[in-house]
Amino acid sequence: MRRPSRLTSHRSRLGWRVAFALSLLLATGAPTLAKRPALALTNGDPAPGMRGTQPDQTYFDLQYEHKATLVNFWATWCEPCRTEMGKLDELYKRRAADGLLIVGVHAGYVEPATLGEYLRDLPVSYPIVLPEARYLDEWGGVSSLPLTFLVDGKGKILRRYIGATPEQMDGLVADVEAALDGKPLGPVIMPKKPFVATGNE
Length: 201
Prior knowledge:
With 201 residues, this protein is of the alpha/beta class. Helix content is 35%, strand content 18%. It has helices at residues 6-28, 79-95, 112-121, 134-138, 166-181; strands at residues 51-53, 59-61, 68-74, 100-106, 128-131, 147-152, 157-162. The termini are far apart.
């Protein structure tokens, strides 16, 4: 029986060592491997920050100093977002004086002209932010829109909303009212068919 050459044996040992090293890195979560954050920030988690520029090129740095803050992720190509933004603006105009802040965060790149045209057709009173790229990851990755978080005055997430069915919007508005009035939030609304967008349409 032919014995393996020294070169073949060396390659075999080297391949085994490389495979072992890779498995060890995967098992231990070594810092050299890129890590994505959890995909679902949820109730009770601390809300990440949010920095970026507004359409007029002024700098925006979100501070959780309001009684309640809604961080709403949207995009110009997201049709459900358009419906939601009108209702959010109505809510903001009605309750801003009571301590409500709404921040509309555009998820992904948008041409300035496209954003300007969109906001001329659907003007809103609350701040619109083009975020620094890292913040989308810090918020857990934004894969479905609209995505909205209700945050209290201490920077704690009270509730997350994915989609914008009429029932969800009614529930979101009721939750904001409750948070501003110091009352418990209502039941979570789980629609049979979520009203979301998942890609650049």
